[in-house]
UniProtKB/TrEMBL annotation:
The keyword NADP does not apply. Coiled coil: none annotated. This is Dephospho-CoA kinase. It comes from marine metagenome. It holds the Pfam family CoaE. Gene3D superfamilies: P-loop containing nucleotide triphosphate hydrolases. One of its GO terms (biological process) is coenzyme A biosynthetic process.
């Protein structure tokens, strides 16, 4: 079995990495969404559910007994130590699921390229498992606008979320390609097409 090329796709909150992921899927590229896998860790059927509950208490549950991601998010994004605790629980589970899904795609679909979309690709060290790293980057002003439209976040709330992640100065040096996203979706798509053309020529 030929091992596929793994490309890490990351960027700060509101940068547009999920938009790029959807563009890639539209073109037929498989995308593993690490954030979605992280949601699975919080499901009651997953072993991580009990670990998270033991760490943070029943106050994070909703009325149906499920972990409320808004409640959990409010708790951890205000306290770096609690965020670190959550990450130490969830990231090993997510890493195993990424490995399992990569193997499944390689065996069942014989794909040549797999994209790994992960907000914390650099922070977790997962970039070391990737052949390339693509980073979607935006100015803070644009990010604040998007978060206000998407989540109804106030500038203060949005800046708190931004500050909990790596700064561009620490993230961008890891990039093989940088997709600047300060213009229109069409401009972003055109830049993506240019990068993909160069990638296809190398395979």
């Amino acid at each position: 079995m030929k091992h596929p090329l793994i490309i890490g796709l990351t960027g700060g909150i509101g940068s547009g990495k999920s938009t790029v992921a959807r563009m890639l899927e539209k073109r037929g590229y498989p995308v593993i969404d690490a954030d979605l896998l992280g949601h699975r860790v919080l499901e009651s059927s997953h072993p991580g559910f009990r670990e998270v509950l033991e760490a943070f208490g029943k106050g994070i549950l909703d009325q149906s007994g499920r972990i409320s991601r808004p409640k959990l998010g409010l708790l951890v994004f205000q306290d770096p130590q609690k965020l670190e605790t959550l990450n130490s629980i969830s990231h090993p589970h997510i890493a195993r699921m990424i490995e399992k899904e990569s193997l499944r795609l390689a065996e069942e679909r014989s794909v040549e390229i797999i994209f790994l979309e992960a907000a914390l690709l650099i922070e977790t060290g997962w970039q070391r498992k990737c052949h390339q790293v693509w980073i979607v980057n935006s100015d803070e002003e644009r990010i604040l606008e998007r978060l206000a439209l998407r989540n109804g976040s106030s500038p203060e709330e949005a800046k708190q979320r931004i500050s909990s992640q790596l700064s561009p100065g620490k993230r961008l040096p890891h990039a093989d390609f940088i997709l600047e996203n300060n213009g229109t979706p069409k401009e972003l798509e055109e830049r993506l097409e240019q990068v993909l053309e160069g990638l296809d020529e190398k395979i």
